[in-house]
Every structure is written in structure tokens, then in C-alpha cells.
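Q: What structure does this chain adopt?
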Amino acid sequence: MTRALVFPGQGSQFVGMGKTLAEAEEAARLVFEEVDDALSVHLSKIMWEGPEDVLRLTENTQPALMATSLAVIRVLEAGGLKVADIASHVAGHSLGEYSALAAAGAFSISDAAKLLQRRGQAMQRAVPVGEGAMAAILGLSLEDVNAVVKEASSVGVVVAANDNADGQVVVSGHKGAVERAIELAKEKGAKRGLLLPVSAPFHCPLMKPAAEEMKEALAAVTIKRPAVPVIANVIAAPISEPEGIRTLLVEQVTASVRWRESVSAFSSLGVHEVVEIGAGKVLSGLVRRIDRELETSNLQEPADIEAFTASL
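A:
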């Protein structure tokens, strides 16, 4: 059975993630130590003890989620299972694309941690707190949401930032424009429109300063050809060429996350099973909504990895 590995993005974090695995497996513990050293921050302590509001800071959340995912990958590798042995493709939601690339060997864990810390800081700096917002629009198609944001753009910048699944689209931009988009969406028949508890308007044109900063940061990092292709957020299609990956990671900061299309591409690529690697089960739920033919599972705890290994 052909398999894809997917890696979660912001919103999947929780205090305590990765702790059980680190206590049970040396390979996992070494990942958290490597990330702590790379960032000169005791990030693992924040991850395992909180407080939650500190973990939720974008500059902490992004490398923390990557570390949790890569700890699972290193445990699999310690058991003799490389990514290329168990999957034909990898993909990640937003910051999860960095986790996917690190898992496939495109760059080191240390480089991924540093890039994600800087990405989080750059995104936070790009728009003053309170000026931007994001909202989930539930029950409308992407086409309808695009019509809504086009009309709401008279108030300010607002775009469809995450096409997560049928009937679940996230919009992002200036707070007033996002609030107007919620009103218009409800008028068009949306089931719900709710502001999200985020600190910045990700994946929209307001993130251009962050994209410029990430262009500089990514230019200084060696990117290798991944062991398997990554389904990139920006194009919802496979890519393996290092310079193309570098370019798309810069574009990803301001571009929409095309997750629904990325998952829909799996079947045409021969993928029948999707395994979520790391914290939570958000992506597994979205995958099931997008394509019920795909089998899903999640690897997070030692027992998950043991059961997965035994099933191969």
C-alpha cells in the first residue's frame, strides 16, 4: 500500500506533547536536545511544562511542532525504518512543510528549528498586534469565500488563506476586512464564521515583510534533494528540486495553504494511506473529510509507533 506522511501546523500544539516519547525513546530525547541547543532556548521545558500562553507564541509553537514530529521520525529510523521505506510522498500544513522536508532529509533538524523560530518572529513583526486577524468560514465553498473576500476587500486586505477542506476555509487580513468577510459569509449562508485565536494574519499579502526575511534566511541554508517528493502548499503538487523548494517556501509565507487540493492529489499519485506524524489529529480529520477512500492514522505516542511498525 502506497503511503504519504503528513505533518501538522499551528493549532495542533498542546502542553506535554512529545514528553512520553522522549521518556521512552533516546532517539526522541536527542531530537528535543538538538532543538534546544540550536535555539539556545529550553524549548522542551516550555513544551512539557508550559505555560500554554508561552508555548502558543508563534516563535515557540513552530519549532516545537517540528521537534515533536521529527522525534517520531527519529524513533522510526532507530527501528530501521527510513522515510523512503515507508512513504512515497510527504506533505505538511504551513509550518508542517518544514517538518516534512526535514523528515525527508532536505535540511537538518537544527536548520529547520532556526528557520521556524525566525519565521515565527518575522510573521509576528510583520503586522502590529491587533491590526490583523484570521477567521474560519464554515459551510461555504472556496469559490463562495473568494467572492466574499473580494467584496470585503473594500474595507482592507483580506484573502482566503487556508483551503483546509470542503466547507472549511480560513480567511486572513486586516481585522476590519476579516470581520466584514464574516458578515458577508453569513449572508451567503455560511454555517459559522469565527475569529481565530492567532497573533498575526498568516498567509496573506500583509506577511510580505516576513517573506522578505525568510528569503534571506533560506538563502543561507543548504537544501538537499528530499528522499521523497514533498507536496508543496503553494502548488498542491510534488516537488523535489532544492531551488524550487526554496522559492516555494518563501512564497508560502504570503500564499494560501492549498491543503484540500494537496490531499486530493494523493489519489492521482497512487497514495492509499495517510499517516499524520506528531501532535494531535487535526490533519487526519481533514484528510477524512476530503477523501474518505484514504486510510488515516496518527503516530504520536510510543504505542502508536509500535503498532504501526508491527503492521508493516
